[in-house]
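ESCALATION

Customer reports they have been waiting on this structure for their group meeting. Please prioritize. Original submission:
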Amino acid sequence: MAKLFVYDVYANKFLIYRDLSENDPMPYSYGNTLTLREFRGSSNAAVLWTTTAAMEAWNLTRRTYGAGIPVGYAFKRIWEGGHGTASQHYAGVAFDVGQSTTAANRRKIHAAATATGAWGYVEPLSMTPTWVHFDRRYGTPACSGTTAGYPTCRKGDRSTYVLILQDALNALGYSTGTLDGIFGSRTYTALQGAQRSFGLTADGVCGCNTWKKLTAAVVGIGRTQTVIDS
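Update from on-call: job pushed to the front of the queue and completed.
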């Protein structure tokens, strides 16, 4: 059974689904075109997250393609790793699909994803010859000169990027007290502690340099005793 956060980017609030089984359809997904198990991919975490916008982009792509889309990888918790230090998979808004189908079908899936205009990024096929990657990233990256990376997170914010921040801090032993996607006082204090340990200004704002240090330290370290997974 799993707990799922779905961030509504339009209303700036989380919808929380508890006790979902692996064969349950993902909330907001079209019909039964995406189950929790498919979204989970290789993650073993009990708490997962995504956004309504990502689910809407999935629905549009699935309708445009007109057939089942095999999902290889979607969600991952940052301490589980498997992707880069600024991966949108950790935000629950990225999909790597089509690994088990033909190159011709992957071209069709890529064309369908591009045609929707709903994804923030559809990776060129030349970069992913054996799968198709698309993601519904949101926010302005904290590091300038790039369309990748995570946005600056401040006290009072709420988003799946705050969930990444809290998850990373907890895994490294800087307790936020909860995993709820809301940047409150405990997250602020925990972030200051991490910033001091990294030799950064402890301003409690997760900007470009803090994201770089934090993600480099936590990606793929595995489940630690201080991870919150409930």
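Sent to customer with the following note: Residues 120 and 138 are 7 Å apart (CA to CA).
Escalation resolved.
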